[in-house]
Write a structure and sequence with these properties.
The protein is α+β, with helices and mostly antiparallel strands and about 750 residues long. Among the domains are: about 220 residues, DNA ligase/mRNA capping enzyme (D-amino Acid Aminotransferase, Chain A, domain 1), CATH 3.30.470.30; about 80 residues, OB fold (Dihydrolipoamide Acetyltransferase, E2P), CATH 2.40.50.140; about 100 residues, Orthogonal Bundle (DNA polymerase, domain 1); about 70 residues, 3-Layer(aba) Sandwich (Rossmann fold), CATH 3.40.50. It is built from 28 helices and 26 strands. The strands form seven sheets. Strands 14, 15, 16, 17, 18, 19 and 20 form a seven-stranded antiparallel beta sheet that branches. A five-stranded mixed beta sheet has the order 2-13-10-3-9. A four-stranded antiparallel beta sheet has the order 5-4-7-8. The longest helix is centred in the last third of the chain and has 23 residues. Bound molecules: 5-amino-3-(furan-2-yl)-1H-1,2,4-triazole-1-carboxamide. The site of 5-amino-3-(furan-2-yl)-1H-1,2,4-triazole-1-carboxamide has 10 residues, from strand 3 and strand 8. 5-amino-3-(furan-2-yl)-1H-1,2,4-triazole-1-carboxamide binds next to strand 3 and strand 8.
Length: about 750
C-alpha cells in the first residue's frame, strides 16, 4: 500500500480512479440496506516510525502556527468501524463504514451488543448524535469461542478482527447475539447540538451517556509525549484483553481539527502509529508431533523463520489433527501465522494460491510417538491424540514419576518435583523402575552435580549433613514403597482414565497384575462402571512394549504386590461368548443379535472364520452380517475375539475355584455324552474341572452324573443300566453354577 501510495504521489497521472489507495473499506455486499453517512467515516493515515510521527506533529504546528500541542492518544483497536445514530437519545440506526461515504445497515445486529446502549443515560445529549467507534472481539472470548468450535467440530474464526467483522455481517441477528462482541466509542459523526471543544472532553461526555470508552486514552503533549505513549502502550500490548494494531493520535482541539481539514479520505489532524503486524505469511517446512508432559500429542508446524510482532517465529501450533484437516495445511504450503499476546503462535490459514505444484499430499497423523515409538491413540469423539507409552515415553517421564511417587500412589515421601527434575535431567532415572535402583551414593552424587551445575557448592559440613539426611530418608522411603497393594500399583502406573476408584475395582475383580497386564481389553468391561473408553485405554497401555518392559523392570527391582488374589467369583457372570461380542463393540451387533448369533454358532473360532452367508444363515440381518465380517477381516479384531474367548475360559476356571470357599464338585466324577448346545464339550469339561469335578470318558458305578445331550447313545444306556443319575443341559448348568442337582 505504501509503495503504491509513493508511486501515485510520484506519478499522479498514472493513478487510476479505482486505485485501492482511494478506497477506505469494503464495498457493500448487497446483503444489507445501504446507509449514507452524512458526515463521511474517515480512515486514518499511517505512521510507521518516529520520523513520520514527528513530521505529522510538525505539519500541524506549522499550519496552526502553534507549539507544544495537546493530543488525545488512544489505542487503535483492530476490529470493525461502525457508526451509531441516536435521535432524542434513542438508538435508531447502526452502520458499517463501508467505503466511508456509505455503509451497510446492521442495526439489528448491533442491537444485540450490550455495549451499544439502546437509550442514552442523562438528558444533556444532542437531538441527533452519531457515535463512531470500533466493534471488536476480546481475546479471551475469541479463544473460548474457538475452543468450543474446535471441540464441536465447528468453524473456527481466523482472528478476533475477522471474528468481529463476520459476526456483525450475519443476516440473522440471533447468530450475532451468540458472538462475544464488544464496542469502544472514539469519535463522532453528525451532531445536531452543542458539544465540548476538545476531543478528550467529548469522549468523557460519551462515557457519561453510557458508551464504553477506552480506559487507555490519555492527553499528551508534543511529539515526545506521543512517542512515549506509543512505547508505554507497546509494552502493555500483549497483556491487553483485546488486539490493537497501533495507537491513534488526534489533535485534541476541535477548532484546530477543523482548520487542519482532510486529504482524500483521511484527516490531517489524526494519524495511526502502527505496531509491527501480528500476522505474517511464511512457508511450512515440516509438520511434527510434540508430546506434552501428560502425553498429549500436538501437531506443530516448523516454519521458515519470520518476524511476527517483533519476534522471530519458527514454530506455530496447529492445535490438533482436526484443525489441520479443517485448514488443510500441507508441508510446503504458505500460511498465515499469527502471534498475539503471549499465546503460542498459531497457523491461521493457508494461502491456497501459493500451494506448490505438484500438490503436496494431505497430512496424516503418524501412528507412533516420535519420542518413544508407542502408538498414538485417540479416543472416540475426542479431538486430541495422545501417546500411549505412559511409562516409557521420555516426554512424559517427569509427570509419570511425579504421579507414581505421589502419596495416594506409591507414596514415596521426599521425592518432590525438584528432585524429580534433577534425577531425570541428570540421567539417573529414565523410568519409574529406575527409582528402585537408586543408592545413597547416587543421590549424593546427583545432589553434588546439581549444585555444581547451579554454581551453589555448599561446602559447609552442615549442608553436607542435610544432603546426607535427605538422601537417607529418600532411600528409606523408596525401600518402603517396594511392598505395595495391587490397587496402589495400578493407580501409580498412570494409565489414562484409571483413577483410584477404577484401580481399586480392577484390583478387586481380577486380583493379579500378571493377569491384568495380559487381559484383552474387552474383558475389563466385566468390572462394573468400566465402559469401552476406559477398557480401551487399559488395553492401549498394556499393548505397548515399552510399558510392559517397565512393569517387568519394576518386578525385577523387587516391587511386590502383597495382596495378589484369585479373580473374584463375581466375574463368572458375563464370561460368555455373547457378552464378549457385545464388549467388543462391533458395529451393528446389538446385544440381542449377539445372543442369537451365539445360539446358532456357539464357538468363537467358528464365528471368527464365518462368511457373510454363514452369518446370515445364523440369523443376522445382512447389514449386521456384513459389518461383522468386515470387522473380522481385520486380523487384530479376530485375534481379539479369540484371545478374549480363551481368556474368558481361563478366568472362568480361576474364578470358579473360589466359589463357596472350595471346589463344590470335589470328589464327583462326571461323564459328558451327546451333543451339547449351550457350551461345547471342551468348555464344559474345563469348567467342571475348575469346580473340582473329574470328567471321565466312560460310565461306571463310580460315576456321579452322566450329562446327556442330544443323540446320546451307549453311555446313556449304560448309565440307565447302572442307575447313575442322568442330567440334561439344564442340570449341567446347575453343576456349572456349583450346585448339585
Ligand atoms: C481505532 N480503530 O481504535 C479511530 N480508532 O478516528 C481510534 N480509529 C479513528 N480512532 C478517526 N481510536 C477515524 C478513525
Amino acid at each position: 500500500m505504501r509503495e503504491l501510495q509513493a508511486l501515485e504521489a510520484a506519478h499522479p497521472a498514472l493513478a487510476t480512479p479505482d486505485s485501492p489507495t482511494r478506497r477506505v473499506g469494503a464495498a457493500p455486499s448487497g446483503k444489507f440496506a445501504e446507509v449514507r453517512h452524512v458526515v463521511p467515516m474517515l480512515s486514518l493515515s499511517n505512521a510507521f516510525g518516529e520520523e513520520e510521527v514527528r513530521d505529522f506533529v510538525r505539519r500541524i504546528e506549522e499550519k496552526l502556527d502553534r507549539r507544544v500541542l495537546s493530543f488525545s492518544a488512544e489505542p487503535k483497536l483492530d476490529g470493525l468501524a461502525i457508526s451509531l445514530r441516536y435521535v432524542q437519545g434513542m438508538f435508531g440506526q447502526g452502520a458499517t463504514r463501508g467505503d466511508g461515504a456509505s455503509g451497510e445497515d446492521v442495526t439489528a445486529n448491533l442491537r444485540t451488543l450490550k455495549d451499544v446502549p439502546s437509550q442514552l443515560r442523562g438528558s444533556d445529549w444532542p437531538a441527533v448524535l452519531e457515535v463512531r467507534g470500533e466493534v471488536y472481539m476480546p481475546r479471551a472470548d475469541f479463544e473460548r469461542y474457538n475452543e468450543q468450535a474446535r471441540a464441536n467440530g465447528g468453524k473456527v474464526l481466523a482472528n478476533p478482527r475477522n471474528g468481529a467483522a463476520g459476526s456483525l455481517r450475519q443476516l440473522d441477528p440471533r447468530i450475532t447475539a451468540q458472538r462475544p462482541l464488544a464496542f469502544f466509542a472514539y469519535g463522532l459523526g453528525e451532531v445536531q447540538g452543542k458539544l465540548p471543544d476538545t476531543h478528550s472532553a467529548q469522549l468523557a461526555l460519551l462515557a457519561s451517556w453510557g458508551f464504553p470508552v477506552s480506559p487507555l486514552g490519555e492527553v499528551v503533549n508534543g511529539a515526545d509525549g506521543l512517542l512515549d505513549y506509543y512505547r508505554r502502550i507497546g509494552e502493555r500490548r500483549d497483556g491487553l484483553p483485546f488486539d490493537i494494531d497501533g495507537v491513534v493520535y488526534k489533535l485534541d482541539d476541535i477548532a484546530g481539527q477543523r482548520e487542519m481539514g482532510f486529504v482524500s479520505r483521511a484527516p490531517r489532524w489524526a494519524i495511526a502509529h502502527k505496531f509491527p503486524a501480528q500476522e505474517q505469511s511464511t512457508r511450512v517446512e515440516a509438520i511434527e508431533i510434540q508430546i506434552g508432559r501428560t502425553g498429549a500429542a500436538t501437531p506443530v508446524a516448523r516454519l521458515a523463520p519470520v518476524q511476527v510482532a517483533g519476534v522471530t517465529v519458527t514454530n506455530a501450533t496447529l492445535h490438533n489433527a482436526d484443525q489441520i484437516a479443517r485448514l488443510d495445511v500441507r508441508v510446503g504450503d504458505t500460511v498465515i501465522v499469527r502471534r498475539a499476546g503471549d499465546v503460542i503462535p498459531e497457523v491461521v490459514s493457508v494461502i491456497a494460491e501459493r500451494r506448490p505444484h505438484p500438490e503436496p499430499p494431505q497430512w496424516k497423523m503418524p501412528a507412533h510417538c516420535p519420542v518413544c515409538d508407542s502408538e498414538l491413540v485417540r479416543e472416540e469423539g475426542a479431538a486430541a491424540w495422545r501417546c500411549s507409552g505412559e511409562l516409557s515415553c521420555p516426554a512424559q517421564r517427569k509427570e509419570t514419576i511425579r504421579h507414581f511417587a505421589s502419596r495416594r500412589a506409591m507414596d514415596i515421601e521426599g521425592l518432590g518435583d525438584r528432585f524429580i527434575e534433577e534425577l531425570s535431567d541428570l540421567g539417573y532415572v529414565e523410568s519409574v523402575a529406575d527409582l528402585y535402583k537408586l543408592q545413597l551414593a547416587d543421590l549424593l552424587e546427583m545432589k553434588r552435580r546439581a549444585d555444581e551445575r547451579d554454581g551453589t557448592t555448599p561446602e559447609t559440613v552442615k549442608a553436607g549433613k542435610v544432603a546426607t539426611k535427605w538422601a537417607e530418608n529418600l532411600v528409606a522411603a523408596i525401600e518402603r514403597s517396594r511392598e505395595t497393594t495391587l490397587e496402589r500399583l495400578l493407580y501409580a502406573l498412570g494409565i489414562e482414565h484409571v483413577g483410584e476408584s477404577t484401580a481399586k475395582a480392577i484390583a478387586q475383580w481380577f486380583g493379579d497384575l500378571e493377569l491384568i497386564r495380559r487381559l484383552p481389553w474387552p474383558l475389563f468391561q466385566r468390572v462394573p462402571d468400566i465402559g469401552g473408553e476406559v477398557a480401551r485405554s487399559l488395553g492401549h497401555f498394556f499393548d505397548q512394549r515399552g510399558n510392559q518392559k517397565v512393569i517387568d523392570a519394576l518386578a525385577k527391582r523387587g516391587v511386590r504386590v502383597t495382596d495378589t488374589h484369585a479373580p473374584s467369583a463375581k466375574l463368572r457372570e458375563g464370561l460368555d461368548l455373547a457378552t464378549l461380542l457385545v464388549d467388543l463393540e462391533i458395529p451393528k451387533l446389538t446385544e440381542l443379535r449377539a445372543r442369537q448369533l451365539v445360539i446358532a454358532i456357539p464357538e468363537a473360532e467358528r464365528i471368527a472364520s464365518a462368511t457373510v452367508q454363514g452369518l446370515v444363515a445364523a440369523g443376522l440381518p445382512v447389514d449386521a452380517a456384513e459389518a461383522l465380517a468386515a470387522w473380522l477381516k481385520q486380523k487384530a479384531n479376530s485375534r481379539l475375539l479369540l484371545d478374549g474367548f480363551a481368556m474368558q475360559k481361563a478366568l472362568l476356571a480361576l474364578a470358579s475355584r473360589l466359589v463357596a470357599g472350595a471346589a463344590p464338585l470335589e470328589g464327583r466324577t462326571i461323564v459328558l455324552t451327546g451333543t451339547l448346545i449351550a457350551v461345547t464339550r471342551e468348555q464344559a469339561t474345563e469348567q467342571l474341572e475348575a469346580l473340582g469335578a473329574k470328567v471321565a470318558g466312560s460310565v461306571s458305578k463310580k460315576t456321579s452324573y452322566v450329562v446327556a445331550g442330544a443323540e446320546a447313545g451307549s453311555k446313556l444306556t449304560k448309565a440307565r443300566e447302572l442307575g447313575v443319575p442322568v442330567l440334561d443341559e439344564a442340570g449341567l448348568q446347575q453343576l456349572l453354577a456349583g450346585r448339585l442337582p
